[in-house]
Specification:
Helix 3 (123-145) links the parallel strand 7 and strand 8. The protein has one domain (2-266): Deoxyribonuclease I, Chain A. With 267 residues, the chain is α+β, with helices and mostly antiparallel strands. Helix 3 runs parallel beside helix 5. It is built from 6 helices and 12 strands.
Length: 267
């Protein structure tokens, strides 16, 4: 079974590319992030025509997550328990469309679009860290209930956990940029450390170092990217992984997303 995650950066702008990629990649489960669509204008038909069941969670023209599966789509859940809300000063906080879970072929898959953080001192950074902390607590609860639980947290984590996960760590630090700060990295590492012990399953199998290249400054032709899209598996599911790839080719050409799909194969 192949499980893929892809920040598509607007599903309606990339309908044709997504449909063609599904035919070419032959994946069984596809998690999408940043669909930038409401449920009413999400293109369900392109997935259904290709033989996939699909669920989408979108509240506005921002954020949005989806799951498409041809091995079953059961127990669909919008948001995880305790998912934090966010609101600008003077506004009522709202739980955003950033998490969607479903059981696909016996695997509980979560499509996740982690908050960006926006700036080191921005209120969105505190929101990001709280969001990740609550997600970790939920995942820890799943393993406490069943040590053999098979689940996957996949998506755009908006964190580059290692220095080599960005094209120039000195540039990031000198400019006080997000994604590489110690609190963000600690929040990511907490998923990998015990007692949770999730596994970054794509990293050992992939030679392409990055999953994201900004549209500006010719970042892609210069290969100035970041590794911020991940598939984190529970220990029982990680034991079934046989391979993975970052489809860098899909970042090329007209109308590409700024992220590449990350595909993991399990037996």
């Amino acid at each position: 079974m192949k499980i893929a995650t892809w920040n598509v950066n607007s599903i309606r702008a990339r309908v044709d590319r997504v449909e063609e990629w599904l035919e070419r990649s032959d994946v069984d489960v596809l998690a999408l992030q940043e669909t930038k669509a409401t449920d009413e204008n999400f293109p369900f038909e392109i997935f259904e025509y290709s033989g996939y069941e699909v669920a989408h969670f979108g509240l506005s023209q921002w954020n949005g997550v989806a799951l498409a599966s041809r091995v079953g789509l059961e127990d669909i859940q919008r948001t995880f328990a305790g998912q934090p809300a966010f609101g600008k000063p003077g506004q009522e906080p709202q739980v955003e469309a950033r998490a969607l879970g479903a059981t696909c072929g016996g695997v509980r898959v979560w499509s996740l679009y982690v908050p960006n953080g926006r700036g080191v001192d921005d209120p969105h950074m505190a929101y990001k860290l709280e969001w990740l902390g609550q997600l970790r607590q939920e995942a820890l609860g799943w393993l406490e209930q069943d040590s053999g639980a098979q689940f996957a947290l996949v998506g755009d984590f908006n964190i580059a956990p290692l220095d080599e996960d960005v094209w120039d760590i000195d540039f990031f630090r000198q400019n006080q940029m997000t994604h590489v700060t110690e609190p963000e990295r600690a929040a990511f590492q907490a998923f990998l450390d015990q007692p949770l012990g999730l596994v970054d399953v794509a990293r050992p199998h992939t030679s392409v170092p990055y999953t994201y290249w900004d549209y500006t400054q010719l970042r892609f032709p210069k290969n100035e990217g970041m590794r911020i899209d991940f598939q984190l598996y529970s220990p029982a599911l990680a034991a079934r992984v046989v391979g993975a790839e970052i489809d860098r080719q899909e970042r090329k050409g007209k109308g590409a997303s700024d992220h590449a799909p990350v595909v993991v194969e399990i037996n």
